[in-house]
Design brief:
With about 120 residues, the chain is an alpha+beta fold. The protein has 1 helix and 5 strands. Strands 3-2-1-4-5 form a 5-stranded antiparallel beta sheet, with no helix packed on it. Strand 4 and strand 5 form a beta hairpin. The protein is globular and about 70 Å long. The relative contact order is 0.16.
Length: about 120
């Protein structure tokens, strides 16, 4: 009887874990879907204007990280992400926490910052 109970508990545990794994996989697939859709739709625009707040500046890698608002021209939702800058001089004078207006240009499947300036009120 004890052996039967151990087998029953084992089978029940495997079934429960299997159900959890399937749910996690479907959740992960749903979470990735917006990014996949964003990449497919955004490739149509050549340039886009946007506004955001600087969260990091990497002068060695020429990357500006921004918490930007939605960008309708390329169908992107609001998010925080790092962008390569076309010219390292664009990073001069910028500070973390600064509100900026910036312009993105398509470069292959990626967008790079080609202009950035402090946002005017």
């Amino acid at each position: 009887m004890l052996k039967f109970m151990k087998i029953a508990v084992f089978v029940g545990t495997v079934a429960a874990l299997s159900a959890c794994t399937k749910n996690e996989a479907s959740e992960q697939k749903r979470a990735e879907a917006p990014m996949e859709q964003m990449n497919k739709e955004s490739s149509k625009a050549v340039t886009a204007q946007a506004v955001g707040v600087i969260t990091a500046i990497d002068k060695k890698g020429n990357i500006l990280t921004l918490e930007h608002e939605a960008i309708p021209a390329i169908k992107w939702p609001a998010m925080t992400m790092g962008f390569k800058v076309a010219d390292p001089a664009l990073l001069e004078g910028l500070t973390i926490g600064q509100h900026v207006e910036f312009e993105l240009k398509a470069e292959g499947e990626n967008y790079i910052i080609v202009a950035v300036k402090p946002k005017t009120a």
